[in-house]
Amino acid sequence: MAGDIIFFSDVRSINVSSHVGIVQYTEGGRVYTIEGNTSNSVLERSYDMKSDYIMGYATPNYPLFVGDGVFIGDTNAEIAWNYFRSLGFNEYATAGILGNLYGESGIDPTKYQQPGPGRGIGQWEVGGRHDILVKFAAERGKPWTDLAVQLEFIWYELNGGDAMTVIILNRSYGGLSNFMNAKSVDWATEAFEYSFERASIIRMNDRITFAYQFYDQFAGRSTATAAA
């Protein structure tokens, strides 16, 4: 799982870890890592997941980061809009997020993919990111189906809770700060899909259409007005 510590051994240290790294993600039977003290550098590496060099993994008890946002509105879409605007996302970025969430779930926190493993407004997959959402909610004494919890979880993932999201945002879109100050609805919608959602069926034109609908509905209100 992303964020796990991966332990390595070699022939000189059987059953004793001689090196560690941080898991970024797994794909196609390989695990991709970031490691220090590698050729006197910090480098990205990858290994066959069945490699004898891998001793095992450990999941640290990372603190769950949550920002200060407001939850005000008459609809799920309005609450989500006000939440992201109160965190400092501009209107283009916020519209891009909502266009994606609507395309995924209709911004319904109880949405179950039928058939499939997707759950909630972001359609997080059971057995992966959804399991982390469940833990995130439980630590707050709330069900994972709570809209505010899911919005906070998106903010948590964007800030490092989901390593792959951060990697793609940094590599392809200039990082979270650049995304939060997006220059267009189209760009923001695509950036959020490719970095955060990573859907198997994209339907980008639909996502962009939804994003513009939310932009037309909510744009022009000040953050103070949105939070009032």
Question: Your description of this structure?
Answer:
- There is one protein chain.
- The chain starts with a strand and ends with a helix.
- The chain has helices at 76-86, 91-105, 129-138, 147-161, 163-173, 175-180, 185-197, 204-218, 223-227, and strands at 5-8, 19-27, 30-38, 41-48, 54-58, 118-119, 124-125.
- With 228 residues, it is of the alpha+beta class.
- A hairpin with a 4-residue loop joins strand 6 (118-119) and strand 7.
- The protein has two domains: 5-58; 76-227, Lysozyme (Orthogonal Bundle).
- The longest helix is centred in the middle third of the chain and has 15 residues, at 91-105.
- The chain is elongated.
- The strands form two sheets. A five-stranded antiparallel sheet has the order 4-3-2-1-5. It has a two-stranded antiparallel sheet with strand order 6-7.
